[in-house]
Each structure stands twice: as C-alpha cells, then as structure tokens.
Amino acid sequence: MNSPRATVSKVLTYSIVDGPGNRLVIFLQGCNFNCACCHNPHTIGECNHCGDCVPACHADALSLVDGRIAYDPVACDHCDDCLEVCPISANPMVREYSVAEILELAREHRSFLTGVTVSGGEPTLQLEFVIELFRAIKSDDELAGLSCFIDSNGHLSTSGWETVLPVTDGVMLDIKSFDNPTHQALTGEQNSKSLESARTLHAAGKLYELRFLLVPGKTDNDAELDSLIGFVKELGGGTRVKLNAFQHHGVRGEALGWEKMSEAGVERAAERLRAAGIGNIVTPAVYL
Amino acid sequence: MQDTTRKLRGIANDATLSPAQKRHYLALEAENMLPYPTLDAETQEALDRRIICDMHEGHAPYKPRYVLPDYSIVLEQGSEYLELPVPKTLDEAISTLMIAYHHVPSVTGIPVYIGQLDDLLLPFCDGVSDEDLYEKIRLFWRYLDRTLPDAFMHANIGPTDNRVARTILRVDAELKQTAPNLTFLYDPQASSDEILAIASNNIAECCKPHIANHPVHAAAFDERGYGIVSCYNVLPIAGGASTLTRINLKEVALRSGGEDDFFAKQLPRYLELNFRLTQARVDYLFDESGFFHSFLVAEHWIEPERFTAMFGVFAMAEAVNALQEKEGRAGRYGFDDEANTLGHRISSVLAEAVSKRPLNNVWRSRALLHSQAGLSDDVETTPGVRIPYGTEPDPVTHVEALSPHHQFYPSGISEILTVDESVRNNPEAIQQLCKGAFARGFREFTVNVASNDLVRVTGYMVRLSDIRKYNEQQGSRTNTTVLGAEAADVTGILERKPRVVANELAPGHGQ
Hints:
heterodimer; A: nine-stranded mixed sheet; two-stranded antiparallel sheet; B: alpha/beta
C-alpha cells in the first residue's frame, strides 16, 4: 500500500493556541464548510491551476509549468498576495508532505513539543493521512509521548471517527450554531453531523474542548446560548467550553462588514453559561 | 566647575527623585570627581571611546559591584557585630534577614541578592501552619518591595519542591510587585513537574520567576554553590563580582577590515585592553579601598577570594551583521545559519581568551564571561548576544538560534522570549518551552507575556503604570522605574511590539 501524502497549507513548530502546551500544527488544505466568517479562508479551496496568482507574485515564486502551478519556497517572501487574488480561496503555496517528513519535523523539535495537532481546513477530509500519522507517532519510541489532537468542524460520520479515535488523544470541535438555518447560512451545511460528533467524542472521552464562535447578531443571542447550555448539560458535566469571538483578522469578503465580537459581549455570554452551572469556560486572552 | 555645580543642583532640585535617590546620584557625582584608577594610555583611549566600558561604576571602586553573602552564617551563628542572637523561630529568622539586607552593599546601594530563601527558612518551619507561613511570607514580601525598592534585588528558590518555595510563588503571583526579582532553580532530577507548572502559571500571571538550568549552573561553580542576582548574573555564594566591564562588539567589528582582521587583530586587542581595565578596577577595590576589612569578612558572610570579575560583551547582533556586510554576505543574525554560526564562533573565541588570561585578586584567577544586557543609554546596540528587539522570531526558532552561545557564558546570559497573551489560557506551553530550551543547553529561561502591566526591561521588572506616572512628574517609589522610564524615552520600548529593552543600569542622573 502506498503511504498517504497530505496536502498541507502550513506547518507551525510553535503554537500555543491549538491544544494543550506547545504544539506542532499541520494545517491541512481543503474544507467541507464554506464559512463567510472563516479566519483562514485560503485553506478552504483546492487549487485548480488557473494561474491567476502568477502575476500577483512579486517575488517570482509562482509559475505555470505544464498547466500546473509550480511554487518555489526559496524565492517566496511570504507576502501572501497570491492568497488575496485567488478566486476560489485556495492556496498556491501548498505542499505535499509524507508521514515520514512530518515525523522528521517532530523529532527535530521534540523537546519543545507537548503534542501534534492536525488542523485546517478540515483535517478529517484527509483522514487516511491523519490515522497513519498518529499511528506512526504512537509506535515511535521517541515520539510516543506526544499527544495527538484534531481540530475539527465535526462534519464527519460516527463510523469515520471510529477509525481515527483509537490513535487520537483529543479533539477540539467547533459548533457554529445550534439553529440549523443559521448554521446553514454560516457554513453551507447542516449541523446534525457536528452535534452527533460532539456526542460521539464525549462518549469516547476524547472531546478535549467544545468551541463556539460568537458572531454578533447571529450566534450571540439568548436562544443560541441556551441551546449551548442545554447541549453541554446533555453531554454531561465538565466539558471544557471555549467561547471564541468573531474578529476581522484574516477574514475576507462580506463578513468584514459584520460587527466584531466585543470582550464585553463574550463576558456576557460567559456569565450566562456560568449562571446555568457550566463551570469550565475559556474566553479569549486576546482581542484583535 | 560651573557645569558640576549645575549638575549637582539639578539632582538636588529634581522633584521626581526621592531624597534617597538624590543622595545616591550626588554620591556618584562626588566619587567621579576623584581621578580614575591608573590606566595605560591605550586602555584609557578605548575606554574614552566606549569600545570598552566600565558600566559607569564610578572612579573609586570602594565596594564590589555584586555581593552574595552566605546568609546561612548569620542564621546559624547570629552576628556579634550587629548584636544579633541566633534566631530560633521563623519570625526571628525573617527579622534577622531583614536586618542583614541593610548591611549588604552593591553598585546600587541596595542588595542584589537576598538569598536561597527556601534553604534558609525551611529549618525554621517545623510546626508552622501553612496559613501562618503564608501570612509571614506575604508581610516579608511587602516589606522587601517597600523598603528595598529595586527590581535588581533577587531571591532564589528551588530546585526542590518545598513549602517555602510554593508559598513564595503563591505570594509573588498575588502581589505582582516589581521587587524582589525571583529565580526558580530547575533540576529535572530534583524538581517536581508540579512546581514547574506552578512557576509557569506565575509567569503567565506576572512574568516572574526566571527559571534557571540548575545542573548546568552548578557544574560551573563549586560545592558552596552559586546565586542568581540582579538581572541575571550567576556568581559564587559567599563572594560575588568585584566589577563588570564589557566590550562593545559592534565597535570592534566596525574597526575591523573583515572577518580575518576581526579575529586575528582587533578582537584580541580590545580583549586585552578590557582585561587591563578590569585588573585596574579590581586592584583598587582590593588594595586601596579597604572594603575587605568589613565585618562581612570577619564573620565569614563573604570571603575575598570568592570574588570574580565579570567580563561582559554586548552588541553581538550588530557585530555579526557588520562583519557579514564587510564580507559581502546578506544573511542576518538570528535568521541566517551562516550569520548565526559566525556569532557562535565569536562566543567561543571570547570564552577561550577569558579562560587563558590570568588576573590577580580574582576567584580562580580568571574572569567569568558574561552576555551583558545593556545600559539605559545604549543606543543602536542589542543587549548581549540577543536578537534585535522587535525582530525576534517565534520562541522556538529564537531558542534554536541562540542556544549554542549558552555554553560559553558561565556568569550569565539571558534571552527574553516574548509570548503573546494567549498563553494565559495555556501555561503548559511555557513549561514545555522551558524544557525544550534547557534540552538545547539554555542556562536560563525568561518569558515576557506581552501586555502585562509588569513588564520585563532586560532582566528586571517595571510596572507600565509606574512609568506613565513617573513621566507625569509624580516620581516613583522604585529605583528601577527611573531606569525603565529612561529606557522608554530613549528607545521607545513601549511603542514596540515586544516589550524588551536594553538596560541594566542608569549610569548616573540624567544620562
């Protein structure tokens, strides 16, 4: 069997916001949601080699070779102008990684790492790679101590989760809205799979954090918050709930016209959750 | 003379200084009216051009720069000179220390080392309840900040996980004072993961403590041990440092034709001149000042032969970049492997030179190399071997670029890793970064969490709110705020993204 390769938007060897401790984060390209409020929209699409980005590159790091985009990482100075002009929210700078290459990076930075997180995009779209990577980490003497986390929108079936959970230590799961029409409007998809995923993960003891994005006028109303409270209670106590605040950093298009979520607004929401007996709430440390 | 009068009058009438602060600056001016210890013409010229530098310590070194008394002596034997009996209770022990501190000189007049506090106090803690211990430490901590208001005053705890260390960490996070400075000595064999986690939480809360790589430091000293003092100087206990001199590596590089000339001629030349400067200052202290006739020596708090000389260097980044330019190479220090390797080579050459040059009246007859963090009037130079402020890469890349330097600087090398506020939700990351840094050979780990009110200026802390008040002419209770304010004005640190700046000491009033 050929070892799977991943399409990777970016790799970070230092991240303190993608799970516990300092983590190696692999941002996998491609997403099955299409959220207007996405803060890294260039990870959504898959490059169709249209070539629109080539003239936008002032460093001559992009070219079309035999009808396909060729990217020169040495020439690139990471100005990200190509991401701005891409008509389909893709990323011409993606590169393919093998499991062995990621393991090598993890070894090189081992002493700085608490664990590895696959994020995205939506990492479960490249599930075969994720399973292979986590399995390899778990069976490697030097790397076995690293915790393996997934940052997901939850749009994956229970049978899908069952294939990856045995080698996964924790999942950070985003719920965009408890109201289906709102969810549909925000993401382009129904929320049923995401809700079911949360239940599956919690039952398996692998739901590290349930995340909820507060967007003013869309998901910060009392009905949403009460649904969140009810859902967390139904899961059972102790779930760590992270309230995220919609900000403009990284966002493109119509959502830039939406109001940013204020600290006071987040605190109001957190207070409502606390009053309802939800104890383990995390709010943003930084507002951009 | 008119200039002098004007200067003295300026200090006496400076409404932002307290009487004690005025006395300190006036005394410094008086000392500097004396002739300098005799230097040969070449050394004098290099000093005048500030290619080598005496940290403006003063013209008549009548006290060592840093004194690290062995406080266990006064706790075990009392003091005849101070008419102190042997303490029997925790209250008596703390009171004895509080008295002792007022008799320990330093370059600033405020003690830079207040002891390995857990080792000192634990023997008095039997039968003391946790709540009583907390209350006594809380009052002790408040006393230190209010009566010895200088963030260079430094307490050490660790490496074991013990009641006193835990209580100090609890109190320090609660009070969020600038003084005292605090270092936890970490040893993976002796420290628990739990106390490292508590220390990491404290860093997220108030940017303290520093964490020291205990096994690495211990190996560089002897069985009487070492202390971490002031803003990151590592020195022998029952001794200290007579003086700290330093070479401005940028100036040496600018005077070099290229890399070969730098290594073959210019660097050896200025190394030798700085050795001569060091020797002249040390000899004055030992042979002329009469300092060692003190009761501190008679009662064995300190031993003259345990005083080292710190041999400092700074502006490594500018030196490397200047040499890169002269050699027609584009790579910049901190980001380019070739430039970084050149920096490591310079450090290794410095260490070898220092290990070979004998000095009189110095511990083990050799100076100790030190990566020096700067003065508040340094401009266009980066402290020690650090990467220029505002351009630092992420903490992991940062550690990887600088860790090869650390083996060469036994008397201290500090990097300040800037971490954004997100870390408050994830202090475990601080713990992991610390372990990673130590695995790479870092001697010391310091984190500044961006936009805390308590902010690190080189190795000490200032309160941003204090700096704002000082600048509004209200004066400040703590001496280091004056330095921080000067640094903020000269270098614009507060506008910069990471709040890291290059000052250790203000050389004098208004400079």
